[in-house]
Amino acid sequence: MRIISAAEVETALDYASLIERLRQAFRRDFEVPVRHHHDVETGGASTATLLLMPAWQVDRHIGIKMVTIFPDNGEKSLPAVMGIYVLLDGKTGSPLALIDGPTLTVRRTAAASALASSYLSRPDSERLLMIGTGAMSPQLIMAHAAVRPICNVLIWGRDFDKADKLAKRLNRRDFRVEATNDLEAAVGGAHVISCATLSHQPLVCGDWLQPGQHVDLVGAFRPDMRESDDRAVERARVFVDTRAGGMSEAGDILQAIEAGVLSEEDIAGDLFELTRGERSGRRYYDQITLFKSVGTAIEDLAAAQLVYERR
C-alpha cells in the first residue's frame, strides 16, 4: 500500500487536470451513500465534526474519507480540517493507498467551485474577491484563475493582518493580490465572489451585489451556518453541487427556504445536470448566479484516482 503525502497530492493535482477529471466524474456512475455526519463535543467553545464519506465505482475503486473539523484549532495554530483518504481495489477490496486527507479535500473542493464557475461566471471575469483567510482561500484563488482570466484579487478576513499576509504571499507582477477591510465595496467591485469561512452569520449581503456577478459559497457546511443573506439568494439563479447535500446540510439554502425566499424547485441545477448539459448555467450577461457546495464523495474519489495514477 502506498502512503501519499500532502506534497505529493499537491503536485499530482494541478487544477486544469483536476477540474476536467471532476467534470468527467459527474457525468459517470458513482455509488455515493449518504455520508456519516457526527457532532463531537469538545472542551472548547465550538462543537467538532466527524465526517465519513464513502464512494465507489463498480470493479474499479472504493474510497472512504475520514475527516475531522475542529473550528477552534486556529487558536492552537492547527488547521481546522484534518483527515485521511483510503483507496481500495474495487475488485478485491485490498488497500491501494493512504492519501493525505486535508490536501485532497482543499484541492477537490476548490476544483468543484471552479468547475461550477466554468458554467456560471462570466467568461470575461477578471476580478475576484476572496472572503476568508484559511487553508481553502489560496486554493480557491488558484482554481478560479484556472478557468477565468482572473488577474486582480482582493482578500477580506476578520483579521486584516492575516488577509494582508496571505495577499503578499500570493501577489506577483501579473497577478495582483491585495487585502481589504471594506467588505461592502469589495463585494460591489468583484466579478466573482468566493467565500470560505465557518461563519454562522451572513457575510455577503444581497443588496451589495451587482448585475453579472457570480457568488461561490464554500465554507458553511451545516444547517446552522451561512455566508449569504436571504436577499442574495433571492436575487440569484441558485445552483448546488448536489441536491441531496444542498437540501440536508447547506445553511445558505435551508435557511433561505425557511424564510420563504427560495423553494427546492427554485434550485436551477447541480453539477450532475450542468456537466451533462441537462440544465443551462448562466443565461444572460447581467444575471447574478450563486453556487453553494457542501462537498460530495464523488469529488474525493475522482481526485484520489488521479493522485494514484500519477504517483
Automatic annotation (TrEMBL):
Gene Ontology molecular function: oxidoreductase activity
GO biological process: carboxylic acid metabolic process
One Pfam family per UniProt: OCD_Mu_crystall
An example Gene Ontology CC term for this record: cytoplasm
UniProt superkingdom: Bacteria
Coiled coil: none
Family: Belongs to the ornithine cyclodeaminase/mu-crystallin family.
Protein name: Ornithine cyclodeaminase family protein
Source species taxonomy: Bacteria, Pseudomonadati, Pseudomonadota, Alphaproteobacteria, Rhodospirillales
